[in-house]
Amino acid sequence: MTQYAPPPPAGMPYPPMPPGPNGMPYGGPPPVQGYGGYSPPPPVRKSHAGRIAGIVVGVLVVLVVAFFAFVMAFGAPVVDGDDVEQKITSEFGLAPGSVSCPDSLEGEVGAQITCTATDAGTSAPVLVQVTSVEGDTVNFTMTVQ
Q: What H or E segment, with its residue span, contains residue 127?
């Protein structure tokens, strides 16, 4: 009686190769897809530092603009120096252009400026002081020194 070996499994027409040196099959490791048998490099992670910095700068700009808008909308009113000069001119019956004020008058109670009034070649300081503020209206007194 003769015995026959079982047929090889399907899809494998030859028996597996014996292991070579270091346990690798003869011919070395199987080729890897990519760069000449080498594995492709790992993917490069993109830095988000630029995007984060842009967002931080944008938020800071928005906060600064909002602060200035708030101050402009709800800040103390200011009386322009020209308006103070006209008020002094009309109050004391002086000629136009005979009064000069160095600055604007801040709309805070107690704020003051000193203007100079000239009449007939004589100059006199005029103290302008805020007495009250009602909304956008600034009330002030004018006293010749």
A: strand 122-134
Query: Which SS3 state, helix, strand or coil, does residue 66 take?
Result: helix
Residue owning tokens 């700068």: 57
> Distance between CA atoms of 2 and 125, rounded to whole angstroms?
138
What whole-number distance in Å separates Cα of residue 35 and Cα of residue 42?
Answer: 12
CA distance 84 to 105: 8
User: Which phi and psi angles does 113 have, rounded to 5°?
Assistant: -140, 160
Distance CA 137, CA 145 (A): 25
Place of tokens 């203007």: 115
pLDDT tens-digit readout, 99-139: 988 888 888 888 889 999 988 888 889 999 999 888 778 88
Residues in CB range of 108: below 8 A, 6 or more apart: 76, 130, 133
List phi, psi (to 5°) of 132: -160, 160
| Extents of the domains making up the chain | 78-144
Global pTM exceeds 0.70: no
